[in-house]
Amino acid sequence: MFHETPRTATRRQGAGAGRRAGEYSGAVHEYLTDGAEIYRRSFATIRAEADLSRLLGDAETVAVRMIHAAGQTDLAADIDISPGAVAAGRAALRRGAPILCDVNMVAHGVTRRRLPADNEVRCDLGDPRTVDLAARLHTTRTAAAVDLWGEALGGAVVAIANAPTALFHLLDLLAAGGPRPAVIVGAPVGFIGAAESKEALRADAATLGLEYVTVRGRRGGSAICAAAVNALAQEDEL
């Protein structure tokens, strides 16, 4: 049972005393409330703490966005961005290329107002055809959904954040002669197959002519992947 102390009573009464509609005066904690200043300090902190020396030009901007989404400045050591990835991704989006996502969490994380050409953001995981297709291919529904992208893959921005099987399957399709995407943001998170799928992406990039953004190791996920796509969609100063 809660027993109100004189201190909490004073806080409670103080919070309500003299308050007008839309006015709050009962803050107990001191904290920064200026959104623009929070934004500025956040990216200043990233640049102060993260080693971004490997990531030059526009690649650095994309990496900073990914680090901000993760809340981990040591992520910089694991981010790998191929030399032409940012330019290829931005050019594709300006041309109106679709963004093909492995899961809806990534699709929902893409900021539509940042897209330069009202680009389609597509996830086929919910398509009922994936059930039978996954059974025939002996794989996951997420990997099977990659098959449904078909010709839309050509020149697209691909964002894979959760399913290593989807990234492996995509690489197999490309090795078999499938349409080449403009860039692959391949950052599946997890303990089984995630690190390996991203190493496969890096290894296959040269032979398959791929541009990519990835995070080595187990880390990754929807927030990091969507942040990278948003950084490709709109050039900004951080």
TrEMBL record:
Pfam families: CbiC. Residues 1-21 are annotated as: Disordered. Keywords: Cobalamin biosynthesis, Isomerase. The keyword Iron does not apply. It comes from the Bacteria. Residues 37-234 form the Cobalamin biosynthesis precorrin-8X methylmutase CobH/CbiC domain. Pathway: Cofactor biosynthesis; adenosylcobalamin biosynthesis. NCBIfam families: PRK08285.1 (NF006136). Belongs to the CobH/CbiC family. This is Precorrin-8X methylmutase. The lineage of its organism: Bacteria, Bacillati, Actinomycetota, Actinomycetes, Mycobacteriales.
